[in-house]
Amino acid sequence: MYNETILIVEDDLQIQNFIGYTLEEAGYFVIKTAKGAEAVRLAAAEPVDMMLLDMGLPDFDGIEVLHQVREWSQMPVIIVSARDQDQEKVEALDMGADDYLTKPFSARELLARIRLALRHYYRMAGNGGEDILVNRELRLDRNRHMVFRGEEEIHLTKLEYDLLALFMENQGKVLTYGSILKALYGKNYGSDTQALRALMAGLRRKLEKNTAKPEYIKTEIGIGYRMTEG
After folding, report:
1. What residue ranges define each of the domains in the chain, with the CATH number in brackets?
2. What pairs with residue 31 in β-bridges?
3. Which of 50, 72, 127, 138 is placed for a possible disulfide with 76 were both Cys, Cβ 3.0 to 4.6 Å?
4. pLDDT at residue 127 greater than cutoff 70
C-alpha cells in the first residue's frame, strides 16, 4: 500500500470523484478541491506529496496555480486537462509540470503516470549528484566522463554526452525542446529544434539497437522527448 497524499484540483465533480476513487483504491490519501486559490492554500498547508491539476478552473487558470506552487515547491505536478494543444502542454512542462494527461484517460494510465512521476521525484531528491547513472544496459560515469552499454564503451561527442546525461537525470519525465536547448546552450538558447533533432539522431544511432523503434529515448510529438525508465 502507498501512503502519499495527492491533491486533486478538478472542477468537474464526476471526474474528481473518478480520480479520487481510483487513487483511494490504489492506497493513496486524497485531498480534493475545485478552485485554484484553494489548491495553492492546501498545497502549502497540508502534507501534499503530489498534485493532479486541471487547467480550466473557475477562479483562475491551472497555469497560474502551477506558477505559484513552483515558487516554493518541487512536488510532482501532473496536468490533467481536456485541452489537447501542444503549445499549452509545452508551456506547462516548461513551467515545471512533470507530465501531462489528456482527458479522457484510463485509471491504469493515470496510476502509471503517478508512479512514474513519484519515482523520478524521489530519485532526484535522493541522488545527491550521483557519480554513476544507470538505465538498463546504459551506464554513464560522471567521474570518468564515459558511457557504456553493457561492457561496451560508447564514444560520444561533448554535446551528445551532455544530452544523454540530461536524459539520464530525468528518466521518465518529458523534456520539451526548449528546456533541452536551454540546458545545453544556456538561457539565450533560441529555438533551433532542427539542430536538436540532428543531435538526437546522432545520439540514437549510438545508443539504440533499432533507431526506427527507439528503446531508450521516445519522441513526444510536437513537445520534446522522454527517456523511458528501465
Report:
1. 5-126 (3.40.50.2300), 132-227 (1.10.10.10)
2. 7
3. 50
4. no
